[in-house]
Every structure is written in structure tokens, then in C-alpha cells.
Amino acid sequence: MPKASEMGSEQSSMPTMKDVAKRAAVSIKTVSNVVNNYEFVSEATRKKVNKAIQELGYVINVPARNLRLGHTGMIALAIPDLTLPYFAQLSSLVIEEAKKLGLRVLVEPTLYSREGELEALHGAQHSMIDGLIYSPLELGMDDVRELDVPYPLVLLGERIFTPDTDHVATENVEGAKHATTYLINSGCRKIAVIGTHPGEELGSAALRFNGYKEALDEAGIEFDPRLAVPARMWHRLDGENAMNELLDSGLVPDGVVAFNDMLASGALHAIQMRGLKVPDDISVIGFDNSEDSQYLSPALTSISPGLEAVARLSVRVLKDRIDGVQPLGIAPDEHVFRKVTSTLVIRNSTRELPASQRN
Amino acid sequence: MPKASEMGSEQSSMPTMKDVAKRAAVSIKTVSNVVNNYEFVSEATRKKVNKAIQELGYVINVPARNLRLGHTGMIALAIPDLTLPYFAQLSSLVIEEAKKLGLRVLVEPTLYSREGELEALHGAQHSMIDGLIYSPLELGMDDVRELDVPYPLVLLGERIFTPDTDHVATENVEGAKHATTYLINSGCRKIAVIGTHPGEELGSAALRFNGYKEALDEAGIEFDPRLAVPARMWHRLDGENAMNELLDSGLVPDGVVAFNDMLASGALHAIQMRGLKVPDDISVIGFDNSEDSQYLSPALTSISPGLEAVARLSVRVLKDRIDGVQPLGIAPDEHVFRKVTSTLVIRNSTRELPASQRN
DNA sequence: CTGTTAGCGCGTTCAG
DNA sequence: CTGAACGCGCTAACAG
Fold it and tell me: How many domains does chain A have?
């Protein structure tokens, strides 16, 4: 037999249910019953059919089945960039969770373009897909009407809200607030924040900044704008630069909240290069609890956004919508709006809480 | 109209070609012609049909089309772990390249399990997929027969060889050799290597180690086993530990070849923590040229495995096989075996070559 | 428990 | 250049 890879299409000679039926001397329906594990098939016929399947090397033709069933068992996941650890992680978790529910995932990087994001929404693929988990970055509140699509949709993040779709988001504000409060409780008073995006109102930077300020506010610490260092990109080097800038200004903080772990890693490095100690001189907290954070030295205390929960929830909700059932305990006509609680993963880049603060 | 997400399946009410045909007062065939950009359709009818499509919001039904055509326009990419930057990068590039050729990609993480890898190969999905790009980690030469699958397959890496499938690989040996030679030319004589896997023969660690030794050999430098530090995992902390171990032993090298950029990053950190300078005291070279490497300080000199070329080649070859044409300039019955040339990306973690060595 | 029949939506002969 | 009828492989009634 020539290898399929040397032929045009593998479909040409693949055996069908009909072939199996003939060989097993049963009807097509019976084969279908066996293949789909229909309960009421006699053990004898089942064996007969399986034998024929084995001998012919029969594999079910998924496209045909899809056509008949009207769905494909495939969902799409649209994210800005698969090379970002955050999204790679998310994708991996979504794929894993989907698999548990018998769903496959088509990952679609939208590559920071508005076009890409719109195409993910309206592209021709959509008869091929049962639903979409959508994490927009470029689209904003002005684009809400774009979300009126003829298939189930779960929206990730907090850039767009509509009462007409299900949302799953992470706690940006609460997470940053938690981190900042933790630093305050551990004795920090001059807490810098790295990675702000001045002028931005949507997006993680703005939300996390708000959390930071809220924490300060509640603790009665006045916000010092000089301690907020912008960083357009959130790479390691940006964190290093930001931290150096701060240190050069003579304004040495006793704590740092970095808006992601890369920034934190850079800050760590800048601090240590000056002979200062983390956490003795300066505590550092990161964001995202990326896999790397545990491998830094000192291991990085970080806010874990609960990506597992995001993945689990969004896939489950989508699956329910596809199946036409109400997700979770949601009332009819209502939509899921769920914020996943973030947790602070304490490692060695922050000082311990004094005994009085622990519980 | 109720939102689809509140209904069972979106398929129920989607307009078909028949609906479009009726509305445009033409035959189904004509609609099909228009949709598929068949050349010989009068401008008038084309317009008429397009208008009807617009009004009805018609979208072509991909599963039906797939059934008829016998292929799906979808390929799978099986990799060990999507959260590894290397594979995330590769996936992203493959998706991009596939898109250019009108193909969609189903990413399938096999999660370091033999089962997962076998399932990717033989799983039921395969009538749903036109071909597979396959990067095994657990499978070895004993499993060659598993690769006899009824669809086009492109094999990535150097773990399994068969004359019966197309291969695309990166230059592990050559890359490591290149890196080591570069260090030698820049004046290093005591070159450590971090990340070896003693006892392993397949796999990147072994191949890269060979390249390192070849370079030493050619330069007439004797290999000192104490300079080869094993590291099972290739995380940042492993690099840091390995480097510390070396430094503690009193055996201070003047150059380090790390088997990936994470290891290199850790080594960098360990070196700097001792007050030693990179590259003045010790040069460091990494592997993979990951996105992070440029954001380390000093920016990391690294071997770029040419992932773009791997992605481009493997998708192209697969596409050709799917279309039944000979890839590249390959003779019939021959198979592609292509190693992508790696390049050394020189940044600031290595000393400059003396004038005599430059070209 | 099993067989028969009728499409799912599309592309494609083959006539016109 | 266009229309009518067929079948891709499968599942869901409904009989038997």
C-alpha cells in the first residue's frame, strides 16, 4: 500500500460505514450503533462489527458526522498573542479543560490587530465552530454591537461589557489591592508601582493601578505620584529600567508592586545590582504568578490570577450554551458575569507579616 | 431574534445556499459559483447573488463543504507543551504560516505522555484533519512503525528517523559547536557547559553536548568533565544552581554554553551575584534565542534555532503532500530531510572577537 | 434488538 | 453561462 502522504487525499480509499456493514453482514445503522456505543446492541453483533472495523481499519468520518449533527465539537479561542506566557498558559488550560468535555480547540492569535479580532468574530470559519472564547485587546466599548454573533460566545477580560453575553474576568483591581495591602501590613510605607499606562482607562494597567491606590487610601497612606513608574511594555528590561530610574531619583521605596512578573524580575535585578537586598531592603510583588516566578531568586511573591478557574469556567459556560442549558445557577435571560478571585502566592521576595497581622 | 447563545444550536436557522438561490432567483449552482469565485459568472448575476447573501447573512457551511470535498483545510500540530516558550513560539509561527496557505491549525499538547503522543497520531480526529506536524518527545526509534499513518505527516526534531516520512529539524550539534567555537575565538579556554543529561543519547541535550565537544576537539582543547554540569530541567533556577555549583567548586570558567536561555539567565544571575562581570570575567551563550534573551542584562548572546524556517518548511511540505505534489525539489519516493541552519545572535553577554578573527 | 429510509448542505456531473 | 438531480458518510426516526 502506498503511503497516504504520497497520494492526493487520504479520503479516496478510506472505508466507510457501508463497507463495514457489508463485511460484517449487518446494516449501516447497526454499525453506527456500535460506533456510537448505543446501549442495546447484542454482544455478538457488537463483536462482529468491531472485528470488521478492525480488519478494514475503519475510522469514523468526522466531517460527515458533523454535517449530520449540525455541530462540530470544536470551539475557538481568540487571544492576542500565543507567545505571551499568560496566553500560552491560558490556551493550554482551555485546551485541557475542553478535552475533558469532549471539545477541541482552535487557537486563533489575533496579533494585536483590530482586523484580526474582528475576523475571529465574523470570519468564515464559524460554521465550523460551536462557540468562541474571546479575549479582545483592541476592541472597546464602541464595538459592542460586533459581539452580536450567531453562535455562543464567552467574553474574557474587562474591556467590553454587554448584558447580552457571558463574561469571565480576573480580579485586576482586587489583586493589586491585595498585593499592596500585603506590603503595607508587612511594614512597607513607600510602595512603588511599576508598569502604569498613563491616560489609559480600560485595560489591566489602569485597573491594577486603581487597586494599588485603593489600598493606599484605605491604609491612610498618601499616594506619591513619583512612585508610579510607567512602562509601556511589560518586559523584563522595562522593569529593570523603571526600577533604575526610581533608584537614580534617590527615591528609594521599601516595596514594589510590579504589574507583571517580567517587570518584577527586572526590578529584582536592578535592586540586586545595587547591592540592595530583596526583601530586606525592598519587597517586590509581581502579577500573573507565571511559571518563572518560582524560579527567580529570591522566588517571587506574585498575584495568581486564577487562570485555571478562568479556563474552567469559560469552557463550562460555553459548553452549556452550546448544549442549550443554563450555565451554573444563572436565570434564563441572565448572563454569567464571573470574576475569578485572585490569590497572593507568597514566596521569598516579600518580608513576612508581623505576628500581629497573621491569621 | 433571540441570541444564538440562548438557543440550542446555531445551525437550526442558518440560511443555506438554497435559501440564497431562491431569494436571488437563481439556481443553487449559480450561488455556489459565486461563493467559490468561479470565473464565468456574469457580473449581473454575481451582484444579485451577493446581495441575497448579504441580506440573508449567509455563511458557507464548512462541514458540508468538507464532506463533499473530502478534506477540511485543517492541520494538527502536536507538541509536548504549549506553555514552553519554545513551543508557544513554534505554534504561533506555524499558525501564521498555515494561514498564509489557507490552512487552520489544531494545536494539540501531548503533555509529556506517551499516550498523548500516540493519540495525536491515531486519535479519532483524523478524518477531521488533512495532515499533521508532529514533534514527539516520548516516542523513540522503537516506535517507527507507529508513524505509518493514513495521512500526510511531517516529523519535527531528531528523535525518530524513517525514510518514509518528511523531516524538518534544527541544527543542535552545529549550533552548539558554533557557540562554543565563537567563545574559543573570543579568547575563552575554560568553557563550561550547563544542562547536560548524562546517559541520554537522543534529545537536544545529547546533541548539543556533542557539538560542544566537537568544537573543543577541533580547537585542540581537552574536554574537562568537571566543566559539564548536568541539569535535568532547564529552568532559570536550574541554571543558577548549576553555575553556583561550578563557582563553589573553585573551578571558575571563562565561558559558559547554556543549553537554553533560561539556564543562561540563571547562570548570568549567579555570576553577577558574586560580583563577577559578564562578559568581562565570564562570557555566556544561551540557546533558543527566546524573546526574553534580548531583555536580560546584559542582553544574551544566543543560538537562534531558526524556528521561522522550521515553521515555514514544515507547513509548506505538509501542504504539498496534502495537495499531492512533490515538495521542494524532492524526487518521487524521496522524502524531505531538512535541517534548518541555526545562527548565532550576538548580543552583550560575550566578548567581542579579536580583530584577527572577524570577517 | 436490527433494518429501511430520508435528509444534513454542498459541489458536480450533464443537459440545456 | 445556468438549472436539475445525485451523492459525499452519517444519524435519526420509524418500522419490523
Answer: 2
